[in-house]
Amino acid sequence: MIAQVIKILPDSVANQIAAGEVVQRPASVVKELMENSIDAFASHIQVHVLDAGKTSIQVIDDGCGMSEVDARLAFERHATSKINDANDLFAIATFGFRGEALASIASVAQVELTTRKEGEEIGSRVEIHGSKLIRQESAVCKQGTSITVKNLFFNIPARRRFLKSDALEFKHIVDEFIRIALAHPNISFVLTHNQNEIYNLGPTTLKQRIIHIFGKHISSELLDMSVNTSIISIHGFIGKPSSARKKNNMQYFFVNNRFIKHPFLYRVILNAYDQLLLPETTPIYFIYFSCDPQFIDVNIHPTKTEIKFEDERAVSQILEATIKQTLGKTNILPHIEFDNESAIHLPISEENKNIQPPKISINTNYNPFNRTHSPQWKNFFETKNTLDRQNSSENEQLFQPLPTDENETNTILQIKNKYLVVGVKSGLMIIDQHRAHERILYDMLIKRYTQEVVYTEKLIFPETFELNKHEILLLKEILPYLHRIGFRITLTSEYTVIIDEVPSYWHEGNIEQTIRIFLSFYEDLENLPQNEPLERFVISMAKSMSIKSGTSLNTEERQQLFDELFLTSNPQYTPEGKKIFEIIPIENIDKLM
Question: Which residues pair with 190 in a beta bridge?
């Protein structure tokens, strides 16, 4: 008798497998439930979160609600009211069309649904734990739907252990909340965390919604853009080149009010800003595409954040042309006027009538290939960095710069304002200046943090600026650390920050920009242990304060950077483990010649 090998999985197991694609973390639950509320034509949506969603997520809406039968069927796999046949997949205008969200969520959490349909007097309550129906009963409730998800991954301990810190998980929830709020400025949204109100956004215009989320300071940086074509319509806002940042969290694409990620269109935007941005910075944009659903495919990824355009080339050309036109209309693009009629007229007086243009003397006997006319030509090649080609023993200091003369110091070259190049006894050392400075600052900040006395300097004119709500929450979390290293910061209102004292070693020119970059780095450091907040703080501060690629350094600054690097605890690697320098052996250089 042949043993049976292939089996049909139980629905509970199949749902948990599907949940692995749909429900990756608490933020995934928030996204799916909010999208369901929007599909139910809700005008007011509340999201209440406890412990970054690990304990509880509740989403309440005033949408159309569900009947008693629909409330139960909604938790069945592939149950949906959005599509009827395969043809509907090519004209999707809703969000939660797959019919897997509620079934997947209920398979890995304890879910309670309360809902009442418009026109009915009594609603329904359904409670499901790990795909098992606990109870279904009639309930007195308001029109709409309230769904509570408790103890996410309670029946999959391995998945729960992989969740990050509360701060990081809540950051992902905020990201999903903001994306949906930006896509629907006509809907009211509320977000609370541990019973503290984070956002309360009323229905408004798109620009006001952006300002309410990211702060008033962004208002003057936005440029309105709009175009309508037979292929696609594009509207929204792009940022002025001056608002571009190295770490930028204000970059959003929406297609038919659905947030998407599209690397190709991102490169198109960078091309449109060509030669207008500082090195390694990216612009702000909030771009909304509207087109016939038949011309796009949103069914290519489980999280529905990727789409495919039918004519991607045409869309990219329209987008690039629209951005360039917007920048041109607002006089951002360089403009030179050659109209002679507008030239400035300078009257000629009797005194300067006889002034003649200077005469240029030319040496007709000059020969650029004659060495006698260029006695210093060899110095360009034969610098003080000449490599020592003699054999060296294993005990020699390989990282010691190699001068050509005992009384001379070694010259350190800078390449592309990014790398330092210096000859050492083992070959040619190439140093990443940004990473080197990051290591130096990290060691210095750790030392400063442990000192009992912190020396500060009072600013003559205190630095005042505004942060958005999420940045303020991050800043409050790390204020004790900032105070410990010498920053005196006051929060005077909901969004306003005042800095009146800085550390005595502070040499950065733009405090506001450094603080913004620091906050971006701080929330992006996901791979550090959860129990090392100080490590996360110091690394983020070192990254934000370090000199950037593209910064020109004079001879003295290069030498100082080199010397201080090799006084640190680990000159070879950054605090995150990235390589700081590489040595090209002299043997490899010989092979190239």
Answer: 46, 200
> Which residues, other chains included, contact 426 with Cβ-Cβ below 8 Å and sequence gap of 6+?
392, 396, 398, 583, 585, 586
For 239, phi then psi, to 5°, come to -90, 150
Encoded tokens for 390: 């003699």
Cβ contact 207:218 at 8 Å? no
CATH assignment at residue 26:
3.30.565.10
pLDDT at 97: 46
Nearest to 11 by CA among 70, 77, 75, 74: 77
Residues 155 and 279 in one domain: no
Residue written as tokens 């080609």? Answer: 389
**Which helix (H) or strand (E) covers residue 541, if one does?**
helix 533-545
Express each pLDDT in 87-145 by its tens digit: 544 455 555 544 578 888 998 999 999 999 988 989 999 999 988 999 999 999 999 99
Rounded to whole angstroms, the Cα distance separating 171 from 536 reads 15
Find where tokens 């046949």 sit. 85
The Cα–Cα gap between 59 and 29 comes to 10
Express as a percent the part of the chain with pLDDT over 90: 34
In a domain, 105, yes or no: yes
| CATH code: domain of residue 395 | 3.30.1370.100
Residue 238, SS3?
strand
pLDDT digits 0-9 by tens, 255-264? 999 998 888 8
For the ranges 116-130, 291-305, 428-442, the lowest mean pLDDT is seen at 291-305
Q: What is the pLDDT of residue 380?
A: 30
* 369 Cβ contact list (under 8 Å, min separation 6): none
Please state, in angstroms and rounded to a whole number, the distance separating the CA atoms of residues 341 and 361: 34
Using CA atoms, how far apart are residues 421 and 414, in angstroms rounded to an integer? 6
State how far the Cα of 183 lies from the Cα of 218, in Å rounded to an integer.
18
- Host domain of residue 224: 207-329
Residue 176 Cα distances to 56, 252, 590, angstroms = 17, 12, 55
